[in-house]
Amino acid sequence: MVWLKEVRENISLTLIWSLLLAAMLIMVILLFPAMAADMSSLLGMMRNLGPFAQALKLDSLPVNQLIGFYAMECENMLGIAGSFFAAYLGAKLLAKEEGQHTAEFLLCLPIRRRSVYWQKWAALLTLLVFFNLIIMVLAALVIYLGQQSLPWIDFIQLHLALFLVQAFFAGLTYALSTFFRAENLALSMGLVFLLYFINIIINLWPALKFLRFFTPFQFAYAADILKQGLDWSLIAVFILITVMVLSLASLHYENKDIQI
């Protein structure tokens, strides 16, 4: 089964990434009690950073509370590093068959290309779910055992938003990989950088707010989630874009001339 094969091949890498990022977030959680006394001054300093704080929406994050401090670090680690990991998997899972010249074996199996395409996408989503669950569960466990408290609904919404950002990049790079004969990691990493840069530009110049429909980072800002919850209308737009892009790429993959 293609799905199971891909999960088995990539589960170790996914576990390593998840444990590394979980360890960093656990350090944030453990450091917070010792830093709590200085958080008020840090909050004031962040609010005086001007355009920089505005670009990253740091000026409205309650970093003097555990949820605010955790959300700030989580947004960076899972939003940026997590998106790089998702983009890497998306660029790799399908394109490697041509790049490593294993497509001949795969396509000799009694299975349609469409099934191969969607099973590999299902494997990619499975790996991302595993990646995020490991991090989320370990962070929650450390918070609970350390007898610290935070609004768990906000905690869950934050992690859900960051998972959806990763899923978008995974879907986009996975779809684009059907147009290449090998893994194009530079393009995939570049897309994450580009959309994150557009995201910052939008925050600095409100007149460009219409560009929010071009970058998923816009619905994953910790400050916005803590204030008003998830922006489901914007999330729905990106889910629709992901489904459309994946569907179009599926049609292309079914008819492309695959190099073996």
Keywords, separated by commas or semicolons:
about 260 residues; about 0% strand; single chain; mainly alpha; 11 helices
Q: Mind explaining what this structure looks like?
A:
By secondary structure, the chain is mainly α. It has one domain. 75% of the residues lie in helices and 0% in strands. It is built from eleven helices and no strands. α4 packs parallel to α8 and α7 packs antiparallel against α8. The longest helix has 34 residues. The chain is globular.
Write the layout of secondary structure elements.
Layout: H1 2-35, H2 39-47, H3 51-56, H4 66-93, H5 96-99, H6 103-108, H7 113-145, H8 152-176, H9 185-204, H10 222-228, H11 232-255
Helix pairs in contact: 1-4, 1-7, 4-7, 4-8, 4-9, 7-8, 7-11, 8-11
Task: Give the helices and strands as they follow along the chain.
Answer: HHHHHHHHHHH
Q: Strand pairing plus helix content: what structural class?
A: mainly alpha
Strands, total number: 0
Distance between the termini: 20 Å
- Overall 3D geometry? globular
Radius of gyration: 20 Å
Strand content: under 5%
Report the helical percentage: over 70%
The total number of structural domains is 1
Protein name: ABC-2 type transport system permease protein
GO molecular function, one term: ABC-type transporter activity
Organism: Ignavigranum ruoffiae
Transmembrane segments: 15-37, 121-144, 156-176, 185-205, 232-253
Give a short summary of the structure.
The chain has helices spanning 2-35, 39-47, 51-56, 66-93, 96-99, 103-108, 113-145, 152-176, 185-204, 222-228, 232-255. It is an all-alpha fold. The chain has one domain.
